[in-house]
Prior knowledge:
Blueprint: E1 9-13, E2 17-21, H1 23-31, E3 45-47, E4 50-52, E5 58-60, E6 64-73, E7 79-86, H2 91-102, H3 117-122, E8 124-127, E9 155-160, E10 173-176, E11 183-189, E12 196-203, E13 211-213, H4 226-235, H5 243-251, H6 253-256, H7 279-287, E14 297-298, E15 301-302, H8 320-343, H9 348-355, H10 367-377, H11 389-404, H12 412-441, H13 448-456, H14 459-465, H15 469-473
Amino acid sequence: MTGSPKVYNTLAVNSGCLCFGELHNIWNGASVPVQSEGIPAHRPQLSGTVQVHRIEYNITARNGIWNGFRLIDLNTKKVAAWFLAHSDVDPEKEVDKILRVSGSPYEDDSGSSFNDDKTAAEGVFVINRYDWGYYDSRSQEVMEPEEINEELFASVGLVDLSVAKPAWLEGGAWLHVPNGEYLFGRFGFDDDHDAARSFLFFTTNTYFTRTAFDGLERTLRKEVTQEERFERKLREGFDFSGLGTLRELSRVPEDSGVSRPPWADCLGPYRQSDHVLRAQEIDAIRVYRDAEELKLFVHGRDLSYLRMEGEIGEFIEPWAESLYDVVNEMVLSYLQRSVIPSMANRGVSAAAELLFPRHTPEGETGLLDVWCHRHFRQPDARPIPNFDSAYVGSRIASFLSRSAGASAVFEDECVAGITRAVAYMLTEVLERANMRSHQDDERTKIMPSDVRMAVAFNSQLRDRFQFSRVYWEGRTGSGSPE
């Protein structure tokens, strides 16, 4: 027999609402109107260098008896987390669903770490470390210092709204994780998303791959390889576009450093028949490694450490086409906004000065201009193997002529130069995207999210490619967001 999880305690819900958090959070939750029925529509906001959800510490909940379960670390045999669920809910299936949708941000197989469209669709409400406790000081003034003791640390409570004030936790449940640090909560909602039916509480030190229900030996999550995690995300339709992250970053540019230009200044989406790069050219750029360019000297300083060694990750379906699309859209917006005004009716020297003015920088902030200027001016620059520069050059020339009008003339030498310079810029984009894939998810494949973040967090690349509507909103969502 496999056995069943042991019920440790019970909680009665009679008012259709639970208050939760530390004591002052609960007081706040009992002092404000109940949030509207269903999953609260809270999305993360930047606050300084962190993201927080502004919540009110009350939530609609299913009436009846809720069972409380201790979750035990099988290595230490101590409580590592708590789970409460309505008596009609299968606790094992419910925990499995919550962890699949949004588990610990400190474990790789954690799903979404914030409230977003996917967590809402799955019926999970996310509470993170900065969302409650002393990080939110509302109602702290009602607490006397002597009322706070050591046992309250790494602890939160759940209590029915009807008894949350003034009796505090009488009739509620107090959840404590010994030696816990940074508190996290996840509410699971019923199938109609009308009311919460479960609550998972854990800390930074909770490792679900070695944690089980008290009375069972099966851990809540299995150890999987990075490749297995990635394959699971692909199967489950994980959003690798990066659009959600980009929107959040651009909401508070003073903190993130990422600001979206005025929507009226953005360009596209273009017809896909206008795209200048095929899959084979983008893949050729991906695998390109010029040994001579791994050494870079500016004013006598060896700056080769700025370049990454190793193989660039591959593209993979079903995201490859989206990646090709955003790369082409970024290139076309750059050609229309920057290249046409700087290159029309000009020779190579004049165009190069206008396009890449920082090609003799005093520091490292103009390195992209240094290399683009070199590629633009030097027709004998080492070509990228399997990159059909004649084809790409003809596509660029055709786009420039159509977009600039009959009075604009583009010299063949300039077109060949901008073809080489664009190819070099994209080696930088894909190299940085490759680094993002390793840092963020330890993946060996490059996704559109990696391309978007590579551009977002590099000011030189962002200056060139930020005017693409598809970059900011994708092809299907590239209408004005205002």
